[in-house]
Amino acid sequence: MPLAQRQTKKEVVTAFRTREILAAARRIMEQHGLEAATMEEIAASAGVAKGTIYLYFQGKEELIQALISQVGENLLQDLEGILERPDSPREKLPQVVSLLLDYLDRERVLFPVYARDLHRGPRPPEKGRRRPLREMEEKYVQLITRLFAEGIAAGEFIPADPRLLTFFLRGLIRAVGYYQMAEEQQDAIKKALPILLTLLSSGLCQPANSPAEEAPT
What we know:
single chain, mainly alpha, Arc Repressor Mutant, subunit A, 2 domains, 67% helix
C-alpha cells in the first residue's frame, strides 16, 4: 500500500471502534426497537463506556443515520454487482427485485426512519463521514435507470422513459415496506415477491421475439 494511503493507528482504531458500536446498535435496536433502545444498552453491548460512544456519535439519531448510510452503501455495492453480470437485462430485473426486497426484509427496523428522512430531506452529517441519503438514493436511481435503458435498447422492455420506470419500481418496493410496517406482516416479502415479478414480467417485459419500438421522448 502506498505510504500516502496508509492509515494511522488512530484512524484504524477509530474505524474499528465505529464498526463495533454500529454492530452493537444494530443488535440492540433489532431486539428492542428503535425507540426503546438506549445508549446505555448499546454501550454495554459494544463493551465500551457510554461516554465512549459520544466520542464517535453525537447521539442515537446519528447512530441510526450511520446505520442507514451503511445499509445504503452495501445495497449500492450489491446492486452494481448484479448489473455487471453478463446476464441480459430481462434476467437481471428479477435479481434486482429480489435483492431490494431482501434488504427491505432485513432492514425492517430501519425502514420507518428511512421513509421519514427521504421526505424530510436530512442535512448531511456534520462530520462529513457518510454519504447523505438523497445522494445514495440518486445513485440507486441511476443504476436502475441504466438497467431499464439497456433493456429498452435491447428490445426486452417496453419503450418508455427508463427513469420513469425506475420510479415506478422504486414506488412498488417502498409500498411493500409500508405494508410490512403498517400491517406488521412478517411474511410481507414472501407474499410480495411473486406478485411484483408477475407485474413486472407482464407489464414491463416485451414478449419474446417482439420487435423493439422507439421509446417516447
